[in-house]
Amino acid sequence: MKTKAIIILLLVACSYSFAQMRSYTYKREIKGIKGQWNSVELPDDVYGKVNATLTDIRIFGITSNNDTVEAPYFQSREAVTFHQVGVSYQPINQTKNENGYYFSFATTGKSSVNQILLNFEQTNYDWRVKLEGSQDQNEWFSIVDNYRILSIKNGLTNYQFNKIVFQETVYTYYRICIRANEQPRLKSANIEWYGPHHSILNPNETCKLKTRSIKKLLVTQDKRRKETIVDIDLGLSVPVGQLKIGVRDTLDYYRPIVLEFLTDSFKTEKSWYYNYSPLTTASTLNSIEKHEFTFGECVTNKLRITISNNDNQPLELHSFVVSGHNSLLIARITKPATYYLCYGKTDGEKPNYDLIEISRNIQQLNNVTLDNEQFVDTNRPSVSEPLFTNKVWLWGLMAVIILVLGWFTFRMMKK
Prior knowledge:
Blueprint: H1 2-22, E1 26-31, E2 37-41, E3 57-62, E4 68-70, E5 73-75, E6 82-86, E7 89-97, E8 100-107, E9 113-120, E10 125-134, E11 141-153, E12 158-161, E13 163-169, E14 173-179, E15 186-196, E16 210-212, E17 216-222, E18 227-247, E19 254-267, E20 272-278, E21 283-286, E22 292-308, E23 317-324, E24 328-332, E25 338-343, E26 366-367, E27 369-370, E28 374-375, H2 384-388, H3 391-414
Parallel strand pairs: 2-26
Antiparallel strand pairs: 1-25, 1-27, 1-28, 2-24, 3-4, 3-25, 5-24, 6-15, 7-8, 8-14, 9-13, 9-15, 10-11, 10-14, 11-12, 16-23, 17-18, 18-22, 18-23, 19-20, 19-21, 19-22
């Protein structure tokens, strides 16, 4: 009876192992595995076949004994975040001459800075700013010049652009000159560094954006609502997190804008209907700031831009650039096997691996490639194929059955 129980357990274990892979719809063989840590970038055509949170992805390996092993992994995109780091400072001077009003600040001179946020008591202003940096207050270097800051507050509009953004610098002293007809009453200033947190795999490598191809672009004017509507079709569902808009108009403009992404769609007898969800709120397309919008990444194949023109002429839009971060899977592979990237499972839950902390000690990372996509036939019996298409399994199973039957027959004859 013990022998019979062991055989049953072995058959159940084999059935469960192969059923693991067959519970996923697609698989791709992983090529070029070397060492313990291997990375693979998800192709664009994978995102439309997995859920939005990418939890239905697994890496399975088939050993020479037809055993199934699972390789743990983590997504590098999960470990990359944007940080805003404040820099401590002391205001040291506030003066005025024929060039304008000056505000000077002293820092430790050890931290990188790429933006300064100015808060004034005034709520309506339109000023030009010059920013300089120095190490000793004797020699000053220009960082930005003729930079415009603006604040409008009335019954119809409440808009502020009071952030000076520039290339990363390291100075001990910063000096701001404001050209204004009145005394700017500065309440506070935030000196900061803002940018993507460096990858945990390589401190010198930052998270790079990938430009998405636009399959179809449609710009329409809704005269009744006084809106410009731009529909962007990417063709494939891919991660998007940034949008750049090119505008030819050179005059001042200030237009509220809504960015949306497609969440689902359904077809009726007449046509298709699309449901969109907002990506950003309270955004504006204006002549002062860069026409660059960064938002929380989502996986979608369609974007919609709605620009409110009010009683103004529609803007002349000439280009659109959509970008996003592709997911990079970092897998720890320790057992020799033929490994597959498996994906596409409606009820797939996020795996729980102990890798994030361990991954900080990765010294060498090997880049692998993926073979062509294969469809997994989920309707096949999970046991029949590995047992009876492999002759070793067939003869082994027959030998075990003969031995068990012979043993029971011998016991019966003995009694």
